[in-house]
Write a structure and sequence with these properties.
With 275 residues, the protein is α+β, with helices and mostly antiparallel strands. Strand 3 and strand 4 form a beta hairpin.
Length: 275
């Protein structure tokens, strides 16, 4: 569909101009902020879950049941049919000293059954107490916490790497460059924070006989990509790759990301319509 103008070169990305540069700068900032948010979730999760796991591992070393303990507000919620979130408030007395604790657990259990629980404390540390459920699911909880933390950490690192690549790519566009237009088939379209921070497109394309796959998040809310047509059920977008090599940029429907002259923009629109 794009063969009629495939041999033509675009003159310059809008990123080389002040307006375009500011646009890419904002996108880069959003990616970094999102990465930092992922890291904050990891730190927050570690602060929230870590001490509870450490406490229960200590209790497991010398557990003592507390049959006279009071359990209140015990409740479990199921997510996705296999993720259990349980919590309860407990209180008990040891040698006339009163202790209270609010307990929370997150673990995997596809059975979704009712749980019979009791309060268990540490023999050597009376102030440390948990539910028998927490000890039964201790390693389960530890693995779930580690997996969730690793997932957010990997996502944050991936976003930082993407921001680094975007920044490096933007630096190469501070001077006029020649671009080769290529059709790019959408593999995945993922909205960031429900579209509030833009949309990430993972696209596949072929250039000089080689197949590539790359991801782009250059569309903020309200922007639309330049759609060439459909490849089966997949949208085909208009992309451009620097002639000297580098990352692809997806063009927008208004062709504002490339510093076209009016004649060039009209010629490109006519070529697409005629294809």
């Amino acid at each position: 569909m794009v063969e009629s103008f495939h041999e033509r070169y675009f003159k310059r990305l809008s990123d080389a101009a002040p307006d375009g540069g500011e646009k890419r700068h904002r996108i880069g900032k959003a990616t970094v902020v999102l990465a930092l948010f992922m890291f904050a979730l990891v730190v927050g999760g570690a602060i929230w879950v870590g001490p509870n796991l450490v406490r229960d591992f200590i209790i497991q070393a010398d557990p003592v049941e507390v049959p006279e303990a009071d359990i209140r507000n015990g409740e479990c919620s199921t997510y996705r049919g296999f993720m259990e979130s349980c919590g309860a408030d407990i209180s008990y007395e040891i040698k006339g000293k009163h202790f209270e604790a609010s307990l929370h657990y997150l673990f995997l259990d596809p059975s979704n059954g009712d749980y019979q629980v009791s309060v268990v404390r540490s023999a050597s540390h009376p102030s440390m107490a948990t539910l028998s459920l927490g000890l039964d699911m201790l390693w389960n909880r530890a693995i779930v916490a580690a997996a969730i933390g690793a997932g957010f950490l990997a996502l944050g690192l991936g976003l930082l790497n993407k921001a680094r690549r975007d920044s490096r790519f933007a630096r190469t566009l501070r001077v006029p460059v020649q671009l080769v237009p290529v059709p790019a088939t959408v593999a995945i379209a993922r909205k960031l924070f429900f579209g509030l921070m833009g949309t990430t497109y993972t696209v596949k394309y072929t250039l000089d006989g080689k197949k590539y796959q790359d991801a782009h998040s250059g569309f903020k809310r309200g922007e639309r990509p330049f759609v060439l047509g459909m490849n089966g059920k997949k949208s085909v977008l208009l992309g451009a790759v620097p002639r000297q090599g580098g990352m692809m940029i997806l063009l927008d429907a208004a062709l504002e990301r490339v510093e076209f002259t009016t004649a060039e923009r009209q010629a490109l629109g006519a070529a697409v319509n005629a294809a």
